[in-house]
Amino acid sequence: MIWKEILIRYGELSTKGRNKKDFINRLRANIRHAFSDIAPLEIVTERDRMHIKIENEEQYEVLMKKLPTVFGIQSFSPVAVCTKELDEMKSLALIIMEQFKEQELTFKVEVRRSDKSFPLESHEIQREIGGHVLRNNPNISVQVRKPDVELRIEVRQDAIYMMAQVIQGAGGMPVGSNGKSLLMLSGGIDSPVAGYLLMKRGVRLEAIHFFSPPYTSDNSLEKVKVLANELTKFGANIRLHVIPFTEIQVLIKDRVPANTIMTTTRRMMMRIADQLREEIGALGIVTGESLGQVASQTLESLTAINDVTNTPILRPLIAFDKLEIIDIAEQIGTYETSIQPFEDCCTIFTPANPKTKPKVEKVTYYESFTEFDELIDRAVRNREVYKFPEANKMQDKFEGLL
């Protein structure tokens, strides 16, 4: 195997100031976590890039497969190494360009010469290597501006490093570099996408799910566990807090007018989420709400729901339409799980004509006849907590469910 390291470029991290080192250290820690199955990894960090040493073919294959899902990486390249002998450099260049032999494309040679004692100047290296590649690859032509392939050569103190692929990374910020929030994970299409987008901005997540047996089944809960596990592939563990919600939900149905059931249900969910958020030390609550998508997501409804808390409510999908959300869900691999036909508690007791413009004072008045505080405390106290990833258990997502 010719590949000896993977070069990682930071992208947005490069714009940071005095705290840049903290972001880089977080990215390095996340990479170690994501690749614990092929540990130990030798990782060397620099101000504008990172190097992961490759020991064997297995490490290379795993790194190439999973690195595109790690937030904080703008792009990466597999790197080959040879001695500083010109003949060795020419041979390695041909081996690297062999992967493009079936394509008609343009290329150029780009040289970075950090070892100034190397006898050839940058333009001489370009001429020697570029000419050798052209003579041996009739399918390739030179294009200095915006070529299809850049053969990049770095002359370092110890050896020659060479690469030709630039693979797009996930971008964003390293997970955990921007605090922790609590994701309200319903099991539908929207909330996993909302979680993904917050993770991309560096937010570490825990998740909360409201479970109402016997109105919701074990299958619906299993679906949410699968979604939580799917989100961990983007570089972090996730704890899922499952709240027993039946008692509160039935009481809401019995005590408030039918057309405000949905609003009060959402308000009680928000109160529970806020209490749990405080307990686990999260800074915000994340939802998958999109403005106007359903009755509970009009501006008036969101105002009524927000009224029960002063905690920041993060709604990354607020201006997305449904097709945009579905596109992202398909890209990140959660869509097929989300559309499995298992109900969640938001779909039960739904009135035929829910209020789309609820008045805060009226909703508060209807709720004032019921003491919800003790029920909320008990629901938080009696929750079940699951930790992900659970790779072995999640291998077959729906084994035994159907």
Automatic annotation (TrEMBL):
Which reaction(s) are listed as its catalytic activity?
[ThiI sulfur-carrier protein]-S-sulfanyl-L-cysteine + a uridine in tRNA + 2 reduced [2Fe-2S]-[ferredoxin] + ATP + H(+) = [ThiI sulfur-carrier protein]-L-cysteine + a 4-thiouridine in tRNA + 2 oxidized [2Fe-2S]-[ferredoxin] + AMP + diphosphate; [ThiS sulfur-carrier protein]-C-terminal Gly-Gly-AMP + S-sulfanyl-L-cysteinyl-[cysteine desulfurase] + AH2 = [ThiS sulfur-carrier protein]-C-terminal-Gly-aminoethanethioate + L-cysteinyl-[cysteine desulfurase] + A + AMP + 2 H(+)
Extract the SMART domains matched here.
THUMP
Top EC category = transferase
Residues bound to ATP are M184, L185, H209, F210, R266, G288, Q297
Alphabetically list the UniProt keywords: ATP-binding, Cytoplasm, Nucleotide-binding, RNA-binding, Thiamine biosynthesis, Transferase, tRNA-binding
Pathway linked to the protein: Cofactor biosynthesis; thiamine diphosphate biosynthesis
Q: Does the keyword Cytoplasm apply?
A: yes
Where in or outside the cell? Cytoplasm
- Segments traversing the membrane: none
- Which domain of life does the protein's organism represent? Bacteria
Q: Name one GO biological process term.
A: tRNA 4-thiouridine biosynthesis
Molecular function via GO: ATP binding; CCA tRNA nucleotidyltransferase activity; tRNA binding; tRNA-uracil-4 sulfurtransferase activity
What does the record give as EC number?
A: 2.8.1.4
What is the role of this chain? Answer: Catalyzes the ATP-dependent transfer of a sulfur to tRNA to produce 4-thiouridine in position 8 of tRNAs, which functions as a near-UV photosensor. Also catalyzes the transfer of sulfur to the sulfur carrier protein ThiS, forming ThiS-thiocarboxylate. This is a step in the synthesis of thiazole, in the thiamine biosynthesis pathway. The sulfur is donated as persulfide by IscS.
Q: What is this protein called?
A: Probable tRNA sulfurtransferase
Name the gene for this chain: thiI
